Amino acid sequence: MGRLFGFTLSESIWPIAAFLGLAAAARTPGLRLVCIFLAILFAGVADEAWRRPGAPPVIDAGPKEIVILGGCVVEPTVFSNDREQFTLELDWKARARVSLSLPNEPQALRDDETPQRLDYGQRVEIEARVRRPHNYNNPGSFDYAAYLARKDIYWTASMPAGSTARVLPGRCGSRLMSLVYALRVAALDRIERLYPNDDYATGMMEATLIGESSKLERVWTDNFRRTGTYHTLVIAGMHVTVLAGVLLFLLRVCAAPEMPALALTAGAAWLYAMVTGFSPPVGRAAAGFTLYLAARSFFRRGRVLNLLAAVALAFLIADPGEMFDASFQLSFLCVAAIGALAVPLIDRTSGPFSRACRSIDDRGIDPHLEPRAAKFRMEVRRVAKKVNARVNARIKAPWVKPWPARAIALICRFFLFAFEMAVISTVVQVGLALPMAEYFHRVSFSGVTANLLIVPLMNAVIPVGFFAIFTGWRWVAGVAGALLRISARIADWHANLEPDWRIPDPPLWLAAGFMAALIALAIWGRAGQRGWRGWPLYGAVLALFAILLWQPWPAPIRRGIPPKTLELTAIDVGQGDSLLVVFPEGRTMVIDGGGVLQYGRQRRSNLDLGEDVVAPYLWSRDIRRVDIVVATHAHEDHSGGINALLEDFRPKELWVGANPLDRVVAQARRLHIPVEAKWAGSRFEFSGARIEVLSPPSGYGNAKPGNNDSLAFRIVYGSRSFLLTGDMERPMENAALSSGEQVRADVLKVGHHGSKTSTTQPFLDAVSPSIAIISDGFENSFGHPNREVLARLRERHSAVFRTDVDGLITVRTDGRRIWADTMVWRGFSAWWTGERGFNWAMESNW
């Protein structure tokens, strides 16, 4: 409520005092309870207002200006294949993430030269270009700037190639964190020595054991994500649980008293949390274990939901922003589903029988069990007696007598344990379905069996991997690596069975109904009730779960939009292009998928613009299938995200220009998507509009892929038209003009991100656009858009919209009028000045 309405601290404190006063004066318990509840509610509002971040600090420097920064290294240097990175604290709670590109080849360094390593607590001075983190301003996008701000990181700084940091005298930081980071660096160094020349094992082990993901390749983890087992790779509560359990077992084996062993284990859990970077899931697990220790010290039984509630409250009081963090929501709901849904279900089904299989020889336990469990226990003994009689007929040994009953009980416990793990895995998949659909647009169907197999293997990787780190024995590291690779093979196998089913954002009524059904089922289960009354609740949960996955209603992509309109939306993908076109009769087209330019990097970026930026926006519009995907040309900033879009949206056709990217064509063929090359002169009707292809010319060929390969076309609807140019440059603009094709358009997608090589004066004169859309990156290194291009557009009185400034840009027309709106509010200016001044709430007519 505080985040929604923006209460100030003073506005939220006086209601607390008022409601507490009313509670003290209330004469009925019910009114007193309501007043206390409202006082607690506004205490949460006050906490949010108190901890709400203020205005970010400012460095007075342009994006291309090199400045001198001095401060304290608070996160030591981490090396990946192509760069080194560390975090510098410039002032109290004002940090910059600093990166320096490394040579692509190790031999580029001199024999006596090694990359500089900075340790925690060193005071340094660097020269760097500084810029603020910038979000992709689209609906459904991840708020990356806010994520970094919660870590007190307000800038990214790039050091010039070949430069080094100047180490200043003196130390900074705390001694405790110096020790923690020394342990972390030592562990990472040991892992690199244990797996020489094995990038896969090094990267995966560093991520799994220490939480260092800088060397992790996306392709290694994709199938873990698809099968819902990615949580086994990232540092989470499971790691703390496994390590705490192993350490506690060893201490008890060494005859350590229970309470000192628990205290030592809790201390080790907190140390591990700090060494791994104190990620929220690990911190919550360490806190939960500490609360469990406190409960045991008072001889109290640890209850999952009570521990979960206490930890959640403690973390939310310390940081209310956690409530809106996907990691917090997923981990909280995971444990809540186990405690509120899985445990009651197991107690009704296999739980009594599992307890009946313990200490099978002790008949004194029988009277304290449920009748069905006691009867099962007697049946086990009866079967064991028959087996024992046959064994004794052959082997005359008194020590053999108790073992048949124990063996049968052990076998029963194994199958009951497998059943319980399947129940827990299924319940977790259902319990997390809503946030998984909302954040990742995916619910894993193979996760039930994949978790049953992978979780035990990865649980073994953790202690074996740390034993290898402590001892330095490579054969032990080899065992851990083998377990990891077996887990990866299982994930790959399950991923091949996983249907390519992606889920759009669910409507509010469905999300609310599904959560209400889960809560009702949890309340019924915790009440300990039995019988048929719970089956309708189970049926409601499963029915709503199926509707959440299926969503059989038509996609409402025109929600709030007049029918029979043509829409062009430029999606903010940074320095690249991605456009969505919705045609008057409802068919959809996605032109390009954005991408990250590589420039000879040793590995592809872990950010897939198609999967991580374009697809979430389309899903936020409830778009599940796309009719046409267009790859204008082969450059990465246009075609880099196409493969993900083909996989996620399975279009009916892929349109390409000249020299399409080989891996895009191969992906289309693998998915049985027809590939059509379009050439200038082609005209045809499409979903209520007319498409006229302007470029490339028929018969055009170029040995090396380039901007002039771009597929450019004009969309005409009524008396209005849109011209989409890709990256076509001056030669193709001149060719289009000389061919006599009609290029006049009301809306122009400016070629090549506003580069001076495109949008020449003759071409602009012929197009004469009222609106110009430029897709470019925030503070990009190319200087796009070019000043001369902007000046030419202003001279023609074109309204200019830019994705780096305005975020997502949408233009619609009904064939007569044109509407334009943008994602980012920038204040209002008259459109004829050529300045941007529109947002999602304001429409301007031409």
Please outline what is shown here:
The protein has 846 residues and is α/β, with parallel strands linked by helices.
Structural account:
By secondary structure, this protein is an alpha/beta fold. Helix content is 47%, strand content 14%. It has 6 domains: 2-51; 66-173, OB fold (Dihydrolipoamide Acetyltransferase, E2P); 218-324 and 445-497, no CATH class; 352-422, no CATH class; 508-550; 566-845, Ribonuclease Z/Hydroxyacylglutathione hydrolase-like (Metallo-beta-lactamase, Chain A). The strands form 3 sheets. The chain has a 9-stranded mixed sheet with strand order 12-11-10-9-8-7-20-21-22, with helices on one face. The chain has a 7-stranded mixed sheet with strand order 13-14-15-16-17-18-19. A hairpin with a 2-residue loop joins β2 (83-91) and β3. The two termini are 40 Å apart.
How would you describe this structure in keywords?
single chain, 846 residues, alpha/beta, OB fold (Dihydrolipoamide Acetyltransferase, E2P), 6 domains, seven-stranded mixed β-sheet, 22 strands, disordered C terminus
SSE topology sketch:
Elements: H1 2-5, H2 9-25, H3 29-51, E1 66-79, E2 83-91, E3 94-101, E4 122-131, H4 144-149, E5 153-158, E6 166-171, H5 175-194, H6 199-210, H7 218-226, H8 237-253, H9 258-275, H10 280-297, H11 304-318, H12 326-348, H13 351-356, H14 371-394, H15 403-431, H16 433-440, H17 447-471, H18 474-497, H19 508-526, H20 535-550, E7 566-570, E8 579-582, E9 588-591, H21 609-620, E10 628-631, H22 636-639, H23 642-649, E11 653-656, H24 662-670, E12 675-677, E13 683-686, E14 689-695, E15 712-717, E16 720-724, H25 730-738, E17 747-749, H26 761-767, E18 771-774, H27 787-795, E19 799-802, H28 803-806, E20 809-813, E21 818-822, E22 844-845
Parallel strand pairs: 3-5, 9-10, 10-11, 11-12, 16-17, 17-18, 18-19
Antiparallel strand pairs: 1-2, 1-4, 2-3, 4-5, 4-6, 7-8, 7-20, 8-9, 13-14, 14-15, 15-16, 20-21, 21-22
Helix pairs in contact: 2-3, 5-6, 7-18, 8-9, 8-10, 9-10, 10-11, 11-12, 12-15, 12-19, 14-15, 15-17, 17-18, 19-20, 21-23, 23-24
